[in-house]
Design brief:
The complex is a heterodimer of chains A (243) and B (329). Chain A is an alpha/beta fold and 243 residues long. Chain A has eight helices and ten strands. Classes of the chains: A alpha/beta (243), B mainly alpha (329). Chains A and B meet through helix 2 of A and helix 1, helix 9 and helix 10 of B.
Chain lengths: 243, 329
C-alpha cells in the first residue's frame, strides 16, 4: 500500500449556514492524475480552494505524505508543493512572461527583511529553461503575457508549476475559454504530469477531457463524494448518472 | 505591404513593453519646436534653471502618484498633503521644535495621511478615488484651520539651503534637483529591479492572481499609499522652502496635474502598467509646455488646454495601440 500524497479526512466547510463540504474523504496517490467532476455548487471549488490555501476548513484533517498539515495561505500551500492554476486568473496580463513566472518567488541578489533586488539574469535564464521544459515555444521571455493566446498562458502557468518542483498541480477548469486546438494542447500538458513526477488534480465540466487525461475520476454532488473509480472501471454514462 | 505590417507590429510591441517611449519622443519633438520658436532661448542656461528648479516638486508628486496607480489605486489628496507637511513644519519650528525633528515629524504626518487613505480604502473595500477625494477636503481644511488662514512665518534661520541653493556648473541646478534625482533613482530601482516592484506591478495588473501567488497584496497597496503621500508632502516642503512662505493654499489642483503627468508618461489608469521614467517624462512634458508656450509668445492661458489635450491623446493612443496589438497578433 503506497502512502497517499494527499489524504483528506472528514473535511467540513460551512459558508454562512450553507454546508458546502459534508465530510469529504479523499486519497490522491503520487503520480496519478485525478479528475474531479460535479455540477455547479457540488463543492469542487471549495475543496480545491482549501487545498490551495485560499479557504480554511471548519473541520477535518489534511495529510501530505502522511504528515498532518495546516494550509493557512496560498504561500503555505506552495511551500508544501501544491500549485494551483485557475481558469483565468493565474497570470498577470500586464507583465512579461519572465516576471510572471517568478511573481512572489523572485530570485534575489540579496535581501533585507524579505525585500531585495531581483537577479534579472538568473530570472531570464530560468524562465527560458522553464518554458522550454514544457515544450512551449515562445518568442522571448520579455513578451507580455497579454500577447499570448489562452492556451499558451496555461502553458506558462504549467511551466511555472514545474519549475518550482511542485508535487501537486491543481487545475481548476484550465480549458475554459480555450479553442479546441488549445484545449488539446493543455490536455497534453496534463497527460505529461506523471512523467515529470507531478500529481495532478483536474477539475472539469467536460467528461471527455477527464477520460482523455485522467487515471481516476472522483464525482462530487451536494458537498459529498458520490463516486470514486479508476477510469477503466467506469464509463461516461455511469458518471453522468451519478451527477 | 507585408513589410509595413511587420514594422508596425514591431513598433507596437516596443511600445507595449516600454510605454514611456512615446512620451520621450514627444519630449524631443517639443524641445526642438520650442527651441526654434523661441529663437534658442528655450535651452539657454537661464531658462533651464527655471524649468529644472520647478521639476523636482511636480516630479516627486508624479512619481508617487504613478507608483500608486501602477499598484491599482489612486490618490486625489496629494495636493492637500503637499500643503499640510510644510505648514506643519513651519508651525513646529516656530514653536521651538528643532529643524531635523520637525522634518521627520512632517514626513510622519504625510505618511499618516497615506496610511489612513490606504486603511480606509482596503478595510472597507471602497474605491480609493472616493476615500482620497474625502481626504483632499479634510487635509486641506486641516491645513487652513491650523494656520488660521494666514501663512505662518518661515524662520530665515532654517537650513533650507540643503534644498534650495544653486549647485553645479553655472548654477543651473538647485539642490532640490539632486534630492529629486536621488529619490527617482531609488524609486526606479525599487519598481523595476526589486521583488517589491514586481509585487506592485502584479497587484495592480491582476489583483486576484497576485493574491493567489502569495503576494502580500494588502501590505503592498498600503506601502504604495504611504509612499505616495510622503513624496507629496516632501515635494510641498521643497516648494515652500524655495518660495519662503508656507501658503496653506499651495498644491491646489496639483493632484489632477500629477495624474495627467503620470498618464502622459504611459501609466495606465487601470493599474499594472507604468514606469518611474515615464512619470518623470510626463512631469517634464508639462513643465516644458508651460514654459515653452510663454517663450513662443503664445497666450499662457492655452497651457491647461495643451495639458488636457495631451492627456486625452495619451489615453486614446494607448487604448488604440493595445487594440491594434491584439488584432494583429
Amino acid at each position: 500500500m503506497i502512502t497517499p500524497l494527499i489524504s483528506v479526512r472528514n473535511l467540513h466547510k460551512w459558508y454562512s449556514g450553507v454546508h458546502a463540504l459534508k465530510g469529504i474523504n479523499l486519497d490522491v496517490r503520487p503520480r496519478e492524475v485525478c479528475g474531479l467532476v460535479g455540477d455547479n455548487g457540488a463543492g469542487k471549488s471549495t475543496l480545491i480552494k482549501i487545498l490551495a490555501g485560499v479557504h480554511r476548513p471548519d473541520q477535518g484533517q489534511i495529510r501530505i505524505d502522511g504528515q498532518l498539515v495546516d494550509i493557512s495561505s496560498p504561500k503555505s500551500a506552495m511551500r508544501l508543493g501544491i500549485e494551483t492554476i485557475y481558469q483565468d486568473n493565474s497570470m498577470v496580463p500586464t507583465m512579461s512572461i519572465c516576471r510572471n513566472l517568478f511573481v512572489g518567488r523572485e530570485p534575489l541578489l540579496f535581501s533585507i527583511g524579505g525585500l531585495g533586488l531581483i537577479d534579472h539574469r538568473r530570472m531570464r535564464e530560468e524562465a527560458i529553461q522553464a518554458v522550454a521544459n514544457v515544450d512551449l515555444h515562445l518568442r522571448s521571455a520579455d513578451a507580455l503575457l497579454s500577447e499570448l493566446s489562452g492556451g499558451q498562458r496555461q502553458g506558462v502557468a504549467i511551466a511555472r508549476a514545474m519549475h518550482f518542483k511542485s508535487r501537486v498541480l491543481i487545475l481548476d477548469e484550465p480549458t475554459n475559454h480555450l479553442s479546441v486546438k488549445e484545449t488539446t494542447k493543455v490536455l497534453t500538458f496534463v497527460r505529461m504530469l506523471p512523467e515529470q513526477g507531478v500529481t495532478g488534480l483536474l477539475i472539469s465540466h467536460n467528461l471527455q477531457h477527464v477520460f482523455q487525461s485522467c487515471d481516476r475520476v472522483v464525482v462530487m454532488a451536494r458537498g459529498e463524494i458520490v463516486l470514486d473509480k479508476a477510469i477503466e472501471e467506469t464509463s461516461i454514462d455511469e458518471i453522468s448518472e451519478s451527477l | 505591404m507585408i513589410e509595413f505590417g511587420e514594422t508596425l507590429r514591431k513598433l507596437i510591441r516596443i511600445y507595449l513593453e516600454k510605454p514611456e517611449l512615446a512620451g520621450v519622443a514627444l519630449l524631443v519633438l517639443l524641445t526642438l519646436l520650442f527651441q526654434l520658436r523661441s529663437n534658442g532661448v528655450f535651452l539657454s542656461a537661464g531658462n533651464l534653471r527655471g524649468i529644472l528648479g520647478l521639476l523636482p516638486e511636480a516630479g516627486l508628486v508624479t512619481i508617487g502618484v504613478a507608483i500608486l496607480m501602477i499598484c491599482g489605486e489612486f490618490d486625489l489628496s496629494v495636493g492637500s498633503t503637499f500643503a499640510l507637511m510644510p505648514v506643519s513644519i513651519a508651525l513646529m519650528t516656530n514653536s521651538g521644535v528643532p529643524f531635523m525633528l520637525a522634518m521627520l515629524l512632517g514626513l510622519g504626518i504625510a505618511a499618516v495621511v497615506g496610511f489612513v487613505n490606504g486603511f480606509l480604502t482596503l478595510t472597507f473595500n471602497i474605491p480609493s478615488f472616493i476615500t482620497t477625494l474625502g481626504m483632499l477636503f479634510i487635509v486641506r481644511s486641516l491645513t487652513v484651520v491650523l494656520t488660521g488662514g494666514f501663512p505662518p512665518l518661515l524662520s530665515s534661520e532654517l537650513p533650507v539651503g540643503v534644498f534650495t541653493q544653486f549647485v553645479g556648473p553655472g548654477g543651473v541646478l538647485r539642490a532640490s534637483f539632486l534630492w529629486f534625482a536621488g529619490i527617482a533613482l531609488i524609486a526606479w530601482a525599487v519598481l523595476s529591479g526589486s521583488n517589491l516592484g514586481n509585487w506592485i506591478q502584479a497587484t495592480g495588473g491582476f489583483f486576484d492572481a497576485a493574491a493567489a501567488l502569495g503576494v502580500p497584496v494588502w501590505r503592498v497597496k498600503m506601502t504604495c499609499f504611504v509612499i505616495c503621500s510622503t513624496l507629496a508632502g516632501f515635494a510641498g516642503t521643497i516648494q515652500v522652502f524655495r518660495l519662503g512662505s508656507p501658503l496653506p493654499s499651495i498644491g491646489d489642483g496639483l493632484e489632477l496635474q500629477a495624474v495627467a503627468a503620470a498618464v502622459i508618461g504611459g501609466t495606465a489608469l487601470t493599474g499594472g502598467i507604468g514606469t518611474v521614467l515615464g512619470a518623470i517624462v510626463g512631469a517634464l512634458l508639462i513643465r516644458f509646455i508651460d514654459n515653452g508656450l510663454v517663450l513662443s509668445q503664445v497666450d499662457a492661458n492655452w497651457f491647461k488646454f495643451a495639458v488636457g489635450g495631451l492627456t486625452i491623446l495619451a489615453v486614446v493612443a494607448n487604448s488604440w495601440l493595445r487594440q491594434t496589438a491584439r488584432r494583429i497578433n
